[in-house]
Write a structure and sequence with these properties.
about 425 residues, alpha/beta, Lyase, Ornithine Decarboxylase, Chain A, domain 1, TIM Barrel, nine-stranded mixed β-sheet, eight-stranded parallel barrel, binds ligand LLP, De-COase2_pyr-phos_BS, Orn/DAP/Arg_de-COase, amino-acid biosynthesis, Diaminopimelate decarboxylase
Length: about 425
């Protein structure tokens, strides 16, 4: 559930009309709802009840420091994949001791910085990385807490570009190799084994793949116990899907119950890394209809947001709902392809959408809070959009729109 709703045919973000926010800050514009973010985070946190657990928000889904700060105030942990994300978490007031560091290519500098600030755990993705972490920790006179990311070879039944738990994916260490790598880790002087993790993919709409992955890591945990290696936590990653159209993903409560049924007898803290399930439906992308045009039988609504602002439809053929900001019941509905200003045919926000609109109207793309602003670019020399967070009856600018002269600020001409 989220806090975007119609009131007298006007789309509201909590208590504020979206139209007013767009008038004040211009379009294209991301708008987030604080109450929705908090509600989604609490849904995960409450679902695990008294079982020891830590919800580590996946920063990549939306790294704006205002969002991270809302999470930090809730007591959230963070799942990061780069030093950039780490510095954002710290800048936003996040607690380093609740940070989990995932990612296949951690550099020496990133490892050193994470050790310096005292993160909770490195999710190690290869034996080579394990050796590197040991060396860097040794140089700094520290001991690095680690978990091994196990690739359980489970089909997540999601888009191939966001599936990560299959043998052919680059992520983690196979179940077969993991036991050996753990034995090696146990011998290293600057490594402390604290956990095990796996993340099998994103936008999962069924429980079964999560449960299959959990079964596989439990078998491995038992083997490790026989080797004298005891774990303190099990991190089951992120990946719980959301409703973009008609998907019916499990609720966090259902998901937690199913996991706890398998894990309740193990004295392990459960760590989760949800991103999308917290942020997706807490955000919309507001865009203005610049032109309506017709090519043959196809009607186009040409809007001012493009694939540089929201790449999900272009990259994954993702369906995201598009609605009118002001519903005008006197207008004739028409079926439109909603397309952006970019010079690529993949530049669309949605195809075959029935909308009652005229030039100059505002549209809102729903579920845009995850992997929207965070994946945006300056392609076609388009400035990064502004971002606003609504908190009850107030709209706060949390990222100003990029100025045009900032587009080439990092560049220089030859002497
Ligand atoms: N943990 C790890 C190690 C991950 O790789 C990811 C996402 C997450 C947690 C969070 O997953 P979530 O709960 O958000 O599903 N850009 C794509 C999604 C890429 C996800 C990458 N990894 C999209 O727009 O659909």
């Amino acid at each position: 559930m989220d806090f975007f709703h119609y009131q007298q045919n006007q789309l509201m973000a909590e208590q504020v009309p979206v139209k007013h926010i767009a008038e004040q800050f211009g379009t294209p514009l991301y708008i987030y709802s604080r109450a929705t973010l908090e509600r989604h985070w609490h849904a995960f946190d409450k679902a695990f009840g008294h079982h020891p657990h830590l919800i580590c928000f996946a920063v990549k889904s939306n790294p704006n420091i205002a969002i991270l700060n809302v999470m930090a105030k809730l007591g959230s942990g963070f799942d990061i994949v780069s030093q950039g994300e780490l510095e954002r978490v710290l800048a936003a007031g996040g607690d380093a001791s609740k940070v989990i560091f995932s990612g296949v290519a951690k550099t020496e500098a990133e490892i050193a910085r994470a050790l310096e600030v005292g993160i909770r755990c490195f999710n190690v993705e290869s034996e080579a990385e394990l050796e590197r972490i040991n060396q860097v920790a040794g140089k700094l006179g520290k001991v690095a807490p680690i978990s091994l990311r196990v690739n359980p070879d489970v089909d997540a039944h999601t888009h191939p570009y966001i599936s990560t738990g299959l043998k052919e994916n680059k992520f983690g260490v196979s179940v077969e190799q993991a036991r050996e790598v753990y034995r090696r880790a146990a011998q290293l002087a600057h490594i402390k084994i604290t956990g095990m993790d796996c993340h099998i993919g994103s936008q999962l709409t069924e429980l079964q793949p999560f449960l299959d992955a959990t079964d596989r890591v439990i078998v491995l945990m038992e083997q490790l116990k026989a080797d004298g290696i005891e774990l303190e936590h099990l991190d089951l990653g992120g990946g719980l899907g959301v409703t973009y159209r008609d998907e019916t993903p499990p609720h966090p409560t259902e998901y937690a119950k199913a996991l706890l049924d398998k894990l309740k007898d193990y004295p392990l803290e459960i760590i989760l890394e949800p991103g999308r399930a917290i942020t997706a439906n807490a955000g919309i992308l507001v865009t203005k209809v610049e032109y309506l045009k017709r090519n043959g039988d196809i009607h186009f609504a040409i809007v001012d947001a493009g694939m540089n602002d929201m790449i999900r439809p272009a990259l994954y053929e993702a369906y995201m709902n598009i609605i009118e900001v002001d519903r005008n019941l006197t207008r004739e509905p028409q079926v439109y392809n909603v397309v952006g200003p970019i010079c690529e045919s993949s530049d669309f926000l949605g195809k075959q959408r029935t909308l009652a609109i005229a030039q100059g109207d505002l549209l809102a793309q729903r579920s845009a809070g995850a992997y929207g602003a965070s994946m945006s670019s300056n392609y076609n020399s388009r400035p990064l959009t502004a971002e606003v967070m609504v908190d009850d009856d107030k709209a706060h600018l949390i990222r100003r729109r990029q100025n045009l002269d900032e587009l080439w600020q990092l560049e220089s001409v030859l002497p």
